[in-house]
């Protein structure tokens, strides 16, 4: 039997979170400042979201635009504060000047997460060598997903690589869940689902009126229906 595909939606606040859950989201990526592609939210915002919904919430650990760790001590403090507030799922990812994984930064932050589950985000799409990055990070505690479009330019450009990585599922460095996001459209879903991809991430697609508007529950529901419709067709075969 086909398993339900995971649908993750970017939320900026409790209003977004409620709408995303109402539309059928399984999980939230909680961020602030999408002008900088998503930074760490405040502890207060996390607490408000956690009170408002009962789906999983992954908190972004990122303090500046780009994929350098920046002020690592400040980042560690954010991670500690979020853990103290009850956060138990996270999103992070840092690259060095050589566009390889910044292992020092990643390991330092992950050490504060007490084994919590986390996603390595789209920094992988800017990496010089994705395969090498995956193998460098493979044994870090809690890493259970990569958020990727397959390319810095989005899913249209990255589709061949995404399909190739999906086919390597289970190999060393490829045991983590492949979650697709970044220019993702509904018409991409059939190809990705046929390849066995079962996790999807949307941001702008959940906001037809743009980032100045809140998440639209009906827009999220359209994605939920598309994913569940394919599952239903598989059961009927």
UniProtKB/TrEMBL annotation:
A Pfam match is CutC
Q: Which InterPro entries match?
A: CutC-like (IPR005627), CutC-like_dom_sf (IPR036822)
**Matching SUPFAM superfamilies, A to Z?**
CutC-like
Q: Name one GO molecular function term.
A: copper ion binding
Judging by the UniProt lineage, the source's domain of life is Bacteria
Under the heading PANTHER family, the entry gives: COPPER HOMEOSTASIS PROTEIN CUTC, COPPER HOMEOSTASIS PROTEIN CUTC HOMOLOG
Family designation: Belongs to the CutC family.
This protein's name = Copper homeostasis protein cutC homolog
């Amino acid at each position: 039997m086909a398993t339900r595909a995971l649908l993750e939606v970017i939320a900026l606040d409790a209003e977004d979170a409620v709408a995303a859950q109402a539309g059928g989201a399984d999980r939230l990526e909680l961020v602030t400042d999408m002008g900088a592609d998503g930074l760490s939210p405040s502890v207060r915002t996390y607490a408000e979201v956690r009170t408002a919904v009962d789906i999983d919430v992954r908190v972004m650990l990122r303090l500046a635009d780009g994929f350098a760790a920046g002020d690592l001590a400040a980042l560690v403090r954010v991670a500690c504060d979020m853990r103290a507030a009850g956060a138990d799922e996270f999103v992070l990812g840092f690259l060095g000047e050589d566009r390889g994984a910044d292992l020092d930064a990643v390991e330092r932050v992950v050490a504060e997460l007490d084994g919590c589950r986390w996603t390595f985000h789209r920094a992988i799409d800017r990496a010089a060598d994705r395969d090498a990055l995956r193998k460098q990070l493979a044994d870090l505690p809690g890493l259970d997903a990569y958020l990727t479009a397959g390319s810095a330019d989005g899913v249209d450009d990255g589709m061949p690589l995404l399909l190739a990585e999906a086919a390597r599922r289970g190999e060393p460095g490829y045991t983590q869940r492949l979650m697709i996001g970044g220019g993702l459209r509904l018409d991409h879903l059939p190809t990705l689902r046929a390849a066995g991809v079962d996790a999807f991430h949307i941001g702008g697609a959940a906001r037809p009126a743009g980032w100045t508007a809140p998440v639209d529950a009906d827009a999220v529901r359209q994605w939920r229906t598309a994913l569940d419709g394919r599952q239903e067709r598989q059961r009927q075969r």
